[in-house]
Amino acid sequence: MHTIDVLAWNKFNRLRLHATDAQSWPLDIPALPELSTKGAYRKELSYSPQQLVEIQAYGMYRGVQVYIEIDMPGHTSVIALAYPGLIAAYNIQPNWSTYAAEPPSGSLKLNSSAVYEFLHTLWEDLLPRLAPYSAYFHTGGDEVNPNAYSLDDTVRSNQTSVLQPLIQTLVDYNHDYVRAAGMTPIVWEEMLLDWNLTLGSDVIVQTWLSDESVAKTVQKGHKVLAGNYNYWYLDCGYGSWVDPPPSTTNPYYPYNEYCTPLKNWHLIYSHSPFASLSTTNSSSATYIPPSSLDLILGGEVHIWSEKTDPVNFDAVVWPRAAAAAEVLWSGNQDAEGRNRSLVEVGKRLGVWRERMVERGVGAGVVQMVWCTQDERGCVADGLG
Predict the structure, then answer these.
(1) Bridge partners (DSSP) listed for residue 18
(2) Are 300 and 16 in contact (CB under 8 A)?
(3) What is the mean pLDDT of residues 101-110?
(4) What integer pLDDT is reported at residue 384 of this predicted model?
(5) Which of 20, 141, 132, 142 has the alpha carbon at shortest distance from 65?
(6) DSSP string computed for 346-359
(7) How do residues 114-159 score in pLDDT, each as one tens digit?
């Protein structure tokens, strides 16, 4: 509830909970109880139906709509702990990276009647409970590794021509349930731009790989959420969470993760999902027609939990996320199209950080205290 409060103070109005992933299923599904009893790290680290209602209702009264993502067909290997027959390429070691973006490997089988029986039970249980509190449901779709399906006994192929229609069927099936529950489906950009799925006109596409992804999505006529990981991934820059194998340490030095470096508040503020697009140069990779600007619904600043937990969460997220919030609401340019002064932004953000700390937020430091007390602030002298 603390994070919802801080989101509201910073004028965020949506919170996407990426509720499950390859490593854990921390969401109680009464109709499928073994998902969390076998899939959560510990019993107390799983949300009960009542807790989920309390979280969503708490957000609703504070102007923060909390909606859920169940990512698939990738990022689902944890399901194998309860239902091993539903997952292909489960926890292949040591070459997990051949089959997945992160360990443990494993993807939902694509041509299995048992998978669809499982999904029917899952959606019939979960979606009616979410619908009173949320207008959206995210069905995932990122980082699908085709190689996993060479080990899928219902497919035995990693060819796009084979997999694409099967993924289309899966997404259509899921989205029919989402719509029947009265919610709008959301997918990751790969479903549209990499797998070339045919999506309903109501589907929102969440982009994360580039500004070009935003433009391509709009050009295809779809509503889009922006969140370029090169600027707005808050978990980047803390080093790889996967250890190098003992015999091959040197090639991994200095042990960065894929999205290094850390996205400091200056970098976050420098990026606007809107200003980075072109509405005049039709040959630009980021061109969108002016008449299509309304398809950009907003943006999301992201935090993933590989190296984040309740102990360090506040310091990792705040006040950097506040910089993105200001960009989304006010832009990073003035009325004349000039970039706002980072000196002025820094002063404002530093004061806001102190206010958050007074309210019990463990927000990271913007600048040393002297910078907020001297009217000239801390400005590079331009000689370096």
Answers:
(1) 69
(2) yes
(3) 97
(4) 47
(5) 132
(6) HHHHHHHHHHHHHT
(7) 999 999 999 999 999 999 999 999 999 999 999 999 999 999 999 9
**Which has the closest alpha carbon to 137: 71, 88, 83, 199?**
71
The pLDDT score that the predictor gives to residue 373 is 80
Indicate the range of 80-84, 249-253, 261-265, 355-359 predicted with least confidence.
249-253
Question: What is the distance between the alpha carbons of residues 183 and 312, in angstroms, rounded to a whole number?
Answer: 33
pLDDT value for 251: 79
3-state secondary structure of 209: coil
Burial 152-182 (b: 16+ CB within 10 A, else e): beebeebeeeebeebbbebbeebbebbbebe
Q: Give the position of tokens 């051949």.
A: 98
Answer yes or no: are the C-beta atoms of 146 and 95 closer than 8 Å.
no
Helices 113-130 and 49-60 meet at what angle, rounded to 10?
Answer: 50
DSSP string, 65-133: EEEEE---SSS-GGGGGT-GGGEESTT--S-GGGT-SSSSP-EE-SS-HHHHHHHHHHHHHHHHHHTTT
Largest CA distance in the chain: 68
Percent above pLDDT 90 for the chain = 83
Comparing CA positions, the residue from 41, 44, 46, 52 lying closest to residue 1 is 52
Q: Residue 298 in contact with residue 12, Cβ under 8 Å? A: no
Q: Is the pLDDT of residue 383 over 60?
A: no
> Which of 77-91, 233-247, 285-299 is predicted most confidently?
77-91
Answer whether 56's CB lies under 8 Å from 1's CB. no
C-alpha angle 184-190-196 in degrees, rounded to nearest 5: 90
Q: Residues 108, 87: contact at Cβ < 8 Å?
A: yes
Q: Which residue has the tokens 């002297």?
A: 370
pLDDT recorded at residue 249: 60
Count the residues in the chain.
384
The DSSP code sequence of 4-39 is HHHHHHTT--EEEEE---SS---B--TTSTHHHHHH
